[in-house]
């Protein structure tokens, strides 16, 4: 791999659009079973909020040294206010549309002795008014950014993702998409789509061999008019498909502790490297390295340029 392009990275400006969410963690001790029901009693001793979803993608972009802007929708509530504060603290420029009709998407996790005991999700689809407001903010932001990242967690913010891709493509900007669901026609015209293994199976069905995967991937890429398609395959590494064929890199994780948010880190690293002028195959290797680091951390986390250079 070539040297980390720190100067080029610092000059890049990346716009992230998608489903923002707050990841709330309650850490505690478990010393007894509840007399009310056969469940453990967690005595909470520490609380921590982190950026999740598209917010975590933007946070990772900033941690790698690039300039990140986040466009999303939040409710007019405590979770939305906390999300805004965290973005500011992490050096991300927030462009958040307020939707008073919903609560901010939040995932609350309860952990005892570092073991997740329970997760509670709060989520609502944004209103049509909020979606219109987001789209109105989107196009003016394109002029001051080099790359667009669309982070789809199927929470409703990217309901009109095809229109956003069309607008960005008309401006000549590269568009990287982390997809969701089985209808990939929504992402037609993007530059790169990054399904994980399960998402790829939803899109093209089960493959019987590497040759079969390559055939299905290249057909999907051609159908969607993509420059490249990257399939993240957990312990099997990552495989890139483009006009030059396929390229594969094995996983680098030394110890897998928590995979939550790993896809966000991979997407962020790909965007940063591509914006800095790195070719897709090289960008994939940097992203694979970043993913291997972040799965060794607890919860949604970041990877810094210093950590990438230490491996």
From TrEMBL:
UniProt superkingdom: Bacteria
Domain Carbohydrate kinase PfkB: 12-302
The UniProt record lists the keyword Kinase: yes
SUPFAM superfamilies: Ribokinase-like
Originating species: Jezberella montanilacus
Protein name listed in UniProt: RfaE bifunctional protein kinase chain/domain
Entries under CDD domains matching the protein: RfaE_like
GO molecular function: heptose 7-phosphate kinase activity; heptose-1-phosphate adenylyltransferase activity; phosphotransferase activity, alcohol group as acceptor
InterPro entries, per database record: Carboh/pur_kinase_PfkB_CS, PfkB_dom, RfaE_dom_I, Ribokinase-like
Keywords, sorted A to Z: Kinase, Transferase
GO annotation, cellular component aspect: cytosol
Signal peptide positions on this chain: none
